User: What shape does this take?
Amino acid sequence: MMLTIRQREREVFDGLRFSHWQASPGPDGVLVLTMDRAGSRVNALSRALLDELDAMLERIAIERPAAVVIRSGKPSGFAVGADLKEFEGYERAGTVREEIEHGQRVFERLAPLPMPTVAAIHGACMGGGTELALACRMRIAARAPETRIALPEVQLGIHPGWGGMARLPRLMGAPKALAMMLTGRAASAERALAEGVVDRLAEPGALLDEAKKLALHPVTRPFAQRAVAWWTNCWPARQILAPIVRKQAAAKASPQHYPAPFALIDVWRRGGGDIAQRLRLEARSVAKLAATPTAHNLIRIFFLRERMRGLAGDTPHDIRHVHVVGAGVMGGDIAAWSALRGFEVTLQDREMKFVEPALARARKLFEKNLKTRERIEPAEARLTPDVEGAGIATSQLAIEAIYENPEAKEAVYRAIEPKIARDALIATNTSSIPLDELRGAFAEPWRFLGLHFFNPVAQMPLVEVVCHDQLEEVIAKRALAWVKAIGKLPLPVKGTPGFLVNRILVPYLLEAVRCHTEGIPDPVIDRAGKRFGMPMGPIELIDTVGLDVALSVGKELGPFLNLELPAGIADKVEGGKRGKKDGHGFYVWKDGKPEKPKVDSGYRAPDDLEDRLILPMLNEAVACLHDGVVEDADLLDAGVIFGTGFAPFRGGPIQYIRATGAGVLRERLEALAKTHGPRFAPKQGWFNPALAAQA
Assistant: This one.
């Protein structure tokens, strides 16, 4: 009789023909559903994919296999979340709520199935993929560095809507679940197990077999986990915890700028014991958030990030060994990051004493990111000190990262070029010197370019790939591919002074120093920048990057931008006050944090302070677009956001100009020019059609 039932199941499910799912019944009674979206290298949850899952679940409810395992057929991971292109279409059509509710209904067909259900997770499990896994009774994850589980919707200006908020707090307890959703941070397999997101771990090669075993021998979650999940979600706990969590969120983000975290907290606070009620709250809230400018801009930024990752096309980088000249903060950290990402690296400086601090910083980076000795030791072995420069001969990429002096840099190039392979790339990490000034040192300038990293290297996602008119296109494409391979976002820019990011940032910083010299308190200046949405005030930013660096870049770019270097930087640098690294700049720094003096409660900031700081950035952004520093307005916005942290909820400087009105901002610049001088005069490009508001 059992054999007959199993045979019937096989015939039924083998007869199902779908584009995005495969059903594989086994002799043990476990039905394996493999998610494999057609025509895509990743599983993005589209309407068609969910409809097919819905039809399968309807059949499963009738046929009743012994257990169900849901897995991915994609090597890249389980699922990356909802199909955002479809989501944008729903928002334009005004059908977001209906589509959210459709996804909820599909997952609600899965959640109450009478047989055990297991999600077998490997690689990326994000957003809707995590919500699909949460709708299963149990989860098992591959024990591998690539396994990452997250609900990152707040980073898109919305929050989970397919049951993530309804289920996660009641799985792992509200405090940890809220922290996971409010930050959007991904959990490793080990952390997911420790916090109760998954029930088991398995070696990658045994994931499916172990998932089947778990399905046939279900586990009950420990009583302590179940107790925490219950009491942290009961009505009194929600009313007590919600204001506390809201206050913590408000310390990091403004409700006006980023409404999603606060909507998330409110939905959780109001959600009761009935999951249908919790799902209704989710759907309504996501639909409302999806219509906000913040969500529009953050989703646009997501697509810009994806565009940057694809700029190299299919060009292979063919780089295995990187040689870095200069073991200072930038050179040493570029070398460490490259080794972390799997490349062989040799690091050269004049003496070993200059290399040793870089090796110590690299060790901390490896320990922070790799955790175990088994993974740290290979990374350390990939980073080799090389005072003599022997590694040049075997490298496919040499990066010069010494101080900003053209003559010193040219001497390095003359030493490198004769020793390195002819098909190797030679790059500079200069932050401001035009490549036209530097390429004269080369016999073969076609393979010389800029790779401008930002400080701190481990945290800043952008790398400007600086081009010039003698650079071969294939070399630029190889550089773009290598930047992507080390986990950074590549941005092709012209090799003009300051490139894109520094050219736009310097007027902002210099104007802040000018405000300082006029007696405006530094904390007031910083508050004005942060009120606009910058992640850090300009005075604090100068202290962080270093007053010496700001002075050097300001001297290089000042004449090009027709800006005088205001008093206030050079004197401090000469006095040894270079900012955070010395413990004293505009602020005194202790334990890595600035001690900001209190401002007299009666002090009132000038009404035009925010405009004085922000409009010079917008003015220079318009000039960069006019000069063709980047290919188009979208890439300009992406570069400034990822290179400076420019208020992401505003969508970048060009998007902000479109939203506010180019004419309005041009008039405000003209008013500033009358009051404060010609440095505010609108530059060429303000009548560019790209600045017009988009439909």
